[in-house]
C-alpha cells in the first residue's frame, strides 16, 4: 500500500500505532472535511479506546505475517469492504497460498480472515450508521453484506444489539421509516 501523507502522519503520530487507529484517524479527517462533527467525535472516541485497549504494536509473533503482508492485507480489506473478499484474494495480497496464509493470519491477528473481514465490515457499518443519512439497506450493501436481513443478523451477533438499538446506545437518534 503506498503511504499517503495522511497515513504516514497517522502512523508516525502513534509510533507504530495500530492499523485500526490509522484508519479511524483517516475517517475522522474525512468526516471533518464534510462537516460531520458527530462522526468525528465517535471516530476519535474509538481511537482512544483502541489505544487504551493496548493492541499489540510490536513485531508479529513467530509464524505470523510480516509487517508488509499485514499492511497489504489490511489495505485490501479496507479498500474492498463493499465487495466479496475471498481468502484467496487476501492470500494473493500477502503472496502466500490460501492455506499457509490462513495459518499465518491467525497467528498474527488471533482470529480467522473471515472473522477479521466481518469485524471490519461491522466497524464500517457503524461509521455509516452514525452518519445517519444512509438507509439501513444501503448501509448493509456498502458494508459488504448481501442484504439488510443478513446485515442485521451479523450486526446483532457481533454487537449484541440490532442496528437501531446500537444507535440508541450511542446516543444517536434513530431515523424512523416514512409512513405512506
Automatic annotation (TrEMBL):
DNA-binding in keyword set: yes
Tree of life domain: Bacteria
One Pfam family linked to the record: HTH_18
Coiled coil: none
HTH araC/xylS-type domain span: 71-169
UniProt keyword annotations, A-Z: DNA-binding, Transcription, Transcription regulation
A molecular-function term among this protein's GO annotations: DNA-binding transcription factor activity
Gene3D superfamilies tied to this protein: Homeodomain-like
Spans traversing the lipid bilayer: none
InterPro entries: AraC_XylS_family_regulators (IPR050204), Homeodomain-like_sf (IPR009057), HTH_AraC (IPR018060), HTH_AraC-typ_CS (IPR018062), Tscrpt_reg_AraC-type_HTH (IPR020449)
UniProt cross-references to SUPFAM superfamilies, sorted A to Z: Homeodomain-like
Protein name: AraC family transcriptional regulator
Organism: Phenylobacterium deserti
